[in-house]
Amino acid sequence: MLPLNVALVSEVPDVEIAELNRIGAAIQKQITRDFGPIWNIQANLSAFVRLEDIPVDYWIATLCYGIPEGSGGHSDADGRPAAFIEWTDNWSHTASHEILEMLADPWGKRLIAGPSVKPDQGRVEYLVEVCDPCQSSECAYTVNGEIVSDFYTPNFFDTVSAEGVRYCF
Known about the structure:
It is a single chain. By secondary structure, the protein is α/β, with parallel strands linked by helices. The chain has one domain (4-150). Helix content is 22%, strand content 24%. It has helices at residues 17-39, 91-104, and strands spanning 4-10, 43-48, 59-64, 82-86, 111-115, 123-127, 141-143, 146-148. α1 (17-39) packs across α2 (91-104). It is globular, with a radius of gyration of 16 Å.
């Protein structure tokens, strides 16, 4: 399988390329070491100074002051996979969350069956948002000293839980 290419770029003037590179390196390690083997995904994450510098075959993760209206979740205005990361003091956590979700479900439409959280509802379909159930800061962990998001594994949707099975990283 060919790896996906993801560009990390900032529209926040105070975030310099050194910070993008540092956080990008932590998320790249998370993808390669933690997320990729579990979800069978290979991806390369690179930081860029300007949108104009990004090669055409890259998916884009953009750090911005607010989520653009009409951004469509995980796609840009042209329908390509994209992630929009709201700048905060712990934006590395949000960046990891959005990038992992984009990799697992590029267009934000993938459904998977699993037992309902509501009693007596049986099996239902859930959107594959791999970081949402464990998105709190308490579930986060660090890579290279940067905070990154926890994520669930495909076993999260097992109909029966079993001892020793990993349901989140």
